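Quarterly update, task 2.4: cobalt (II) ion-bound model.
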Amino acid sequence: MIQGIDHIGIAVKSIDEAKKFWVDTLGLKFSHIEEVPEQKVRVAMLKAGEMTIELLEPTSLDSPIQRFIEKRGEGIHHLTLATDDLIEQLKTLKSASVNLIDEKPRTGAGGAQIAFLHPKSAHGVLIELCEPHD
Ligand code: CO
């Protein structure tokens, strides 16, 4: 079952530059930075109350985030919904003919199990499902 929004992912050219707006100007709290080598990104987690914003900076020219920025510029990249059972959720979605980018969960930032759904099946929104790591 979907339990709520886990975070919003924003593609940026430089975390250091983007932090000047999100943290210094807007006042979100910087949590931490981690590298997710499988997705060729550095990820900065920002908090405002219960809300989490993830800034995604490409670490290589063939990073999916690099390709996104080249095509569309910086901006909102994905919306992440939390689920209590990712494997079951993916089965349900598959049987409803939803186009899955990841048929099986993989490990994302913070050790969470994640899977992406294709924007074609979600009215133009790239959706990441995650089962948070506790
Ligand atoms: Co994300």
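Highlight for this quarter: The chain is about 20% helix and 40% strand.
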